[in-house]
Amino acid sequence: MKPHDCVPLEDYIEYPVDEMRSRAAGFYNEIKRRHTVRTFSDRPVPREIIDDCLRAAGTAPSGANHQPWHFAVIGDPSMKAKVREKAELEERAFYEGGRASEEWLDALSGLGTDADKPYLERAPWLVAIFAQRRGGVEAGMSQKNYYVPESVGIATGFLISALHHAGLVTLTHTPKPMNFLNEICGRPDSERPYILLVAGYPEEGTTIPVHATIKKPLEDIVTYL
């Protein structure tokens, strides 16, 4: 390893193997209850809960530790209405305007999705996640960022897990194109909208598609070499 500035690894905790097994199984049992939902309550969620979940997302690994992400958190009703209006324009072009192939629409049929996105107004929080092409380890830097999609994807996974751990539900929404989010959120053109994450409580009586409960077993997704 090349010489570099470093500090001792002081916050690592090694657990006995039996406790490791218990913690691994416990995490799986918690995270398997995570479901994407499309009906949200308008019950408010305190901002400090969202803040801590975003802090967790900010600990994700990233290329050269440049942390090439920005989270624009939308709680204002008028801004959420603008997001819904713009998103539904793109969604209608997708579902009804010929952007989506028949194969793609068939793949979505088991989820019951369509161009109407009322949850974009009803949920208490929308998080527009932006990928930054340039940046650095400190604010104001303008270096090239590396492994940007991979880094932002990992941070998004951290955020979804943190929100679930806090007791909230989420929906990942990706209308294409999404550059209207730059304008609404006041983000520069150099940043690319990555995902619009919806977060809040589920509406009473919320259901999930049977199709979404189908998860591949371990033997289908893992090979030990």
Structure explained in plain terms:
With about 220 residues, the chain is an alpha+beta fold. The chain has one domain (about 35-205): NADH Oxidase (3-Layer(aba) Sandwich). It has eight helices and six strands. The protein has a four-stranded antiparallel sheet with strand order 1-2-6-5. A two-stranded antiparallel sheet has the order 3-4. The radius of gyration is 19 Å and the shape is globular. The chain starts with 16 loop residues before the first helix and ends with a helix. The mean pLDDT is about 95.
First-residue to last-residue Cα separation: 27 Å
For this structure, the CATH topology is NADH Oxidase
CATH class assignment: Alpha Beta
Order of helix and strand elements from N to C terminus: HHEHHHEEEHEHEH
Q: Could you describe the largest sheet, including whether it forms a barrel?
A: 4 strands, antiparallel
Specify the overall morphology. Answer: globular
Helix count, DSSP H or I runs of 4 or more residues: 8
Number of domains: 1
> How many beta-strand segments?
6
Task: Work out the radius of gyration.
Answer: 19 Å
Mean pLDDT: 96
Uncertain spans, ≥5 residues at pLDDT below 50?
A: none
Structure class: alpha+beta
Strand content: 5-15%
Strand adjacency order, main sheet = 1-2-6-5
- Fourth-tier CATH superfamily name: NADH Oxidase
Please tell me the CATH architecture by its name. Answer: 3-Layer(aba) Sandwich
